[in-house]
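Entry 14. Structure prediction run on the chain below.
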Amino acid sequence: MQYTEDQKKAIEARHRNILVAAAAGSGKTRVLVDRIIAQLLARECSVDEMLVVTFTNAAATEMRERIDKALQQKLLETDDRATAEWLERQIVLLSGASICTFHAFCQKVIRQNIDAIDVDPQFRLASDQEMVLMRRDVLEELLETSYKMPEDEAGKARWQDFLEFVDDYGDDHGDEAVYNAVLKLYSFCQSQPFPKAWLRQQQERYEAESADFWQTPWTDTIVSAVGREIERSVRAYEEVCALVRTGGRSEEAEAALLAAWQPYAEYLQGCIEKLEEVQSAYRAALAEKKAGGWDNFCAVARQWKQPVLRGKKYDALRTAFPEVRKSFEKNRDEAKKIFTDARDRYMAQTEEDVLGDIRACSATVRRYADLTAAFIDALQAAKKERNVLDFNDLEHFALDVLCRDPEALAGAEEADFRGEKGRALRTDAAEDLREKYAVIMVDEYQDTNGVQEAILNLIARDDNRFTVGDVKQSIYRFRLADPYLFQAKYDAYPENPGPDDMDQLITMKQNFRSRAEVLAPINFIFDQVMTREAMEIEYDEKSRLYPGALYPEAEHTLKGPMEIDIILRGEAEQPVASLSQTADDDASDGSGLEGFELEAQHIADRIAALMESGIRVFDKDAGGYRPLAYRDIAVLLRAVKGKANTLLELLRKNSIPAYADVDGGYFEANEVRLVLALLKTIDNARQEIPLAAVLVSPIGGFTMEELARLRMSVPDEDLFGALLRSHSPETPLEEDLADRAADFCAALNRWRSYAVSHSVPELIWTLYRETGYYDYVGGLKGGLLRQANLRMLADRAAEYEKTNYRGLFRFLRFLEDLRKRDTDLSVARTLGASEDVVRIMSIHKSKGLEFPVVIVADIAKGFNQLDARGTFLMHKELGIGPRLVERSDVGRQMYDTLPYQAIAVRIVAETKAEEMRVLYVAMTRAREKLILTGTMAAAKWEKQAERYARSLSSRELALPDDMIREAGSYLDWIAPAVARHTDGAAIREAAGADWGEMLDAVEPDAHFAVHLLAADKIQPHEEEEELDALLQAVRAGKELPASPERETVEHRLGWHYGAEALPGITAKMTVSEIKQRFAEAQREDEPVVLPAVQPAEPAIWRRPQFLQQKGRLSGAERGTLMHSIMQNLDLHGDLTREGLCAQVALMEEKGLIAAGHESAVNYTSIERFCSSAIGKRMKSATRVWRELPFSRMIPVGEVNPAYSESAEKIFIQGVIDVLFEENDGSLVLLDYKTDRDTAPDKIRRRYAKQIELYREAVESILGKPVKESILFLLHDGTSLRIP
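Output returned:
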């Protein structure tokens, strides 16, 4: 197997902590597996001495399977016995090896050290549903308790604190805002190694008196933000100076323009000089960092005013070149606004005011942290009472097991875990794990958090960590992943370590996924926009993507440029304030969705064009090209809510099969909404909206008119009251409507009674059955999905019932809580991953996947920056930033504080940095073709293009930092970068820009196809119904035209069974069944005719032996016993009474007969048989057959004379008790009977047919006649000859 140098280094490097920075598609999982195999084959360690941590269970399973497959292959290849034994042992140990997710490892640590923590050994993991309810219940109870005034003074002080907090941050409608604030802080602090300790630190941070503005933890962030805004304003003024460019005019016009522009250039220079004075004051204050310095700077900033244009010298431009004057004013005012906005936001307060606000925040943060800490304690107590843990508990309890000194751990660096300091931090359990695991490997390391890092540090040795990841693909900030853990090691670890270095960085740069034509444009864009200063990560030579995949040259392939399709929709012009405000955002009124429908139609057109073009894609498994299929195409969206379904519907209208992998939409499914309405009605029938919904649905069957008549029939009642009184004599309702209303009431009462005594899932399935609604939705369009949604509702109810919560009311409340928290559930999935459909998914869902064609849609959508808003903001380093409440005569006012502003600035910066990583992940999913699409208002495009073209004035490879930071959408990064490429002419033309140096040489293989598409060129393709002859006939109610398969259908439907005369005869019968039918017919003195259909008789089950031993034997059981004895009787043995008893005892011992029934044996009958003539003849016979089975075909007429003319035959089976051959060669047939009624005539009639069939079978099979047929009656010891 061929490896690159980087891959080989990653597999072979040893005895150091290794960080592998693996670019997208570089084969990191393969390297990880191959490194494990190499270490196992070299016997460096056993597989049970390895800890391999993956991000998902699926990844862990896949890795385990890969390792198993590789070991099995090596086992087949080896001839060495010792090696084979070692490999076999590794294969056995693999099933129990620690190849798992972090949570699974933590759970294992807890269970193995359960005595070290206060957790019941029988704990279980609570589901997310259960925890949502539990957190809500615990918090409600905590707040309710907190409202009660305690009696002790200390308690009263805390009570007063609580009241002030909820009064400040609650609202007129209740404490919902307080609930959400506590839950938000609780969730955030769970990513810290010790949440309560972190909360205490936040209180201490505010309580520490700071008399110096420059010493607060938040000052540096704000001061840096101010400096960037001043710099941005200066740059904006400088760009206005370059507004007028020569060229494209006559010499006279050029001269006139330059003359008219000269006063403006001087004016702008004056603006810049005044702003630079402010900048100098800023730099002086920053350099000195002395008390009063910030106030001095703010004073200078407040004095700055943009000069006014006065004088005739400015008239020439206005008169001769009004468009230039207009553009000047617009751009100048934008430059001014950058500075004035920053001044108003950050420079309005003095140092003393800022410090006063921080002191005022101290009480708020203390109350907030105390309430959250109390909630943590209460929730932990509730979980202990129910004996459950959640996923956060797994990490924190594992840390408790492993860490001896939490306070020392809080400030520990990686080096502190080595030597004596490390031993002081670790418990004995941690030392044991450190000793056990010779190797620790972590996949997707960029997605770990602080708690997980602390656990790894406690169990790792000095040189046994192998971590793999790509910080450019860290996109799980919302799960509190901390990419800076990876980045810190990336910056610190040397690529070429010395002999004493314990750490090493290995970069894997080659991409084995994508075409060079896909990678080059990605490099071209990210070279310019991913910078350390603006986006925390440097896209340097080590980070770039280098093509490693081989795509053979062929015709009709996807080789070509990256496509950027910008749809320009028509709408009223709106002012554009700044770059960050230009992106199309999701309007609350849904107007943005209309624009996306336009984009969705374009995507459908583009997919259809690809499919019709005969394009072929490279199949890695087959090693050659094949036609493009729908499953090769993926459409990626940053946010799928609402838009995925829009896109899905439009693709289907265009006859493109598609599947949307989305979270959400479940509660909006009509069938789910109706069943929930019915459940709400059963819970409380006085809820009019759910009741009305059910009544006019297929379940109720009422029309809207009938519902109105029903409601108005009793004006003084609500809808349910009208239902109850519908059958009242005074109610003016027609009989049919009143009867139906009464029937619905009866059904509702029945369901309500059922709900009291049965579980929610049982109730749901009862409703499905009784209403028929489940079957009804199955017949609608998309019936499979609808039924899957209904089944899922019952399944969710069953999962809910497994928790400590019960009942319909609580289940409905739980679902309502999910909806309030905007936590929708996923609709059921009825499509598998291998189906030939276009995939629609979020960019997060696509991580780790790859597709030949990727369409990244909605790139003009604005970034979601809600995390930087709200009443309380949180940051790992900067802590808690509250908005401060101040009360006055006019009421309650809430305003921003320095900590709040600082944290908002950091959150915005970190959010945009993650958005850039998300864009990187999206673009690197493509193997052969990458298409980017976005929608923008046509009226905005020209102005926006002008902003993008500002990148042309930069002489550096990277875009200006402020341009990168101020981006409001993916397009705001992509377009300025592409504008600097020859292929970006469409953007430059829209901006009227014909200057700037093109950067094609930076990435010669990068090519782009920029398409600007007018909205009127994108026409909707409604799926036209083909009104063929069949549909026309159906709509007209006419006879349907004949189908080509008419004759086949008529032949099959007109087929007749050829033996209709034999409906009651089975193909196979036993002799006993035939005998019983003849006996019954004779007993009733009826002719021997079998009924057409025999009613099934109840099966007579044999009684268990323990019941036979306890009581008397039944007649059938006694007959079975005697038959068994006769079949095993040794006629040549001792046939005296003692001898017979001995033989029976031996039969019991051998298990031939049931034990304990000696008293039921009729020894007298056995003695009579032995001494009888037939017994003696059998004893002296030359040959004896016992229990002789046979089977044969006989004419049906022998079974039923009514069918004697039929040529059909039936298959019969039977078992002959005894057949023996005498000395003269003649055959004698003997059968034992235990009947109590031994009258000869009755016996002959009853068994004549059976003996006849036995005799015919013997004669037919053996070819010899039966001389005699004899029945021996065991009841009285007599024999009877059957003629």
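The mean pLDDT is 84.
Filed with the rest of this week's runs.
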